[in-house]
């Protein structure tokens, strides 16, 4: 099975690489149906060492006969948190963005909250090298990313003094950046989180207000939403605003279905908050269906722009919050829980995880 270049977010979220090369010591087979009939059954706790948990035998076809989990890079700083964009396969070159962390300046003895970009590459001897990148100009609280044109398109959360949006960064020194979008028709975004570019060149991205309670953004002027933007035009639309904190976004390989993760329980630690993955149909207007449900305006029909319909629950993660989300080329969906777990979901939902 070949992994698509946009899948690497999950590899770096776990700071591991999976090689399907069955080692029973790292495999747990779990029967999910017994939890529906046995009130005393409990889910296994997270193992102290990395392992695979199998909820559906189909996951064995992904793992192969002797799966392994290899730690390739670790650091005391949370450097490998978002993005995970592959720009080269031979040699491997991966770009990741960090979680927020405090940076202390020796000269002023002051502490500043920052995020950073890392370039992770493999040397000829097989070792991995991490290089911290300083874009020019810098990107305020950089988050999710996607390979775009000759560079990487990042979701910039913004700061207390700079608006967030979409920023394109060159992958060659001095890593020049240019702002592609920084407001919704003059209204500042709250704190953009993740981005996906479809084959027609349109940019889909999520925006949520978590930057304000985290102390990196002013009070939001607009609620959480998912957007579609066509660079070089004025085509910018909210395509969904059903939940407060949309996070990751991806599309099925045929781009007929969009998937968005919701993390409404993140900041409040509300166990009833949404920790869901939602699926949407990507629909296009038809000339003979001017009254078709889901089309929000006549101008949208005239432009023939896609819109999202048929929202439905695809899955709920069992721990943490659903964060980065990507498909492999076989149509299997992978999602990180924002912490220590990665879930793999087949077309009929959960198969297993690690």
Mean pLDDT: 80
Q: Supply the number of helical segments.
A: 4
Largest sheet: 6 strands, mixed
Structural class: mainly beta
Account of the 3D structure:
The chain is 6% helix and 41% strand. The strands form 7 sheets. A 6-stranded mixed sheet has the order 2-3-26-25-24-23. Strands 5-6-9-10 form a 4-stranded antiparallel sheet. The longest helix is centred in the first third of the chain and has 6 residues. The chain has 354 residues and is mainly beta.
Helices and strands in order:
Layout lengths: L7 H6 L2 E5 L6 E3 L4 H4 L14 E3 L4 H5 L3 E5 L10 E8 L2 E6 L3 E5 L4 E5 L2 E6 L5 E6 L8 E7 L2 E6 L8 E6 L6 E5 L10 E6 L5 E5 L17 E5 L6 E5 L5 E6 L5 E6 L13 E8 L14 H6 L3 E10 L8 E3 L5 E4 L5 E5 L2 E5 L1
Parallel strand pairs: 2-3
Antiparallel strand pairs: 1-4, 3-26, 5-6, 6-9, 7-8, 9-10, 11-12, 12-13, 13-14, 15-16, 16-17, 17-18, 19-20, 20-21, 21-22, 23-24, 24-25, 25-26
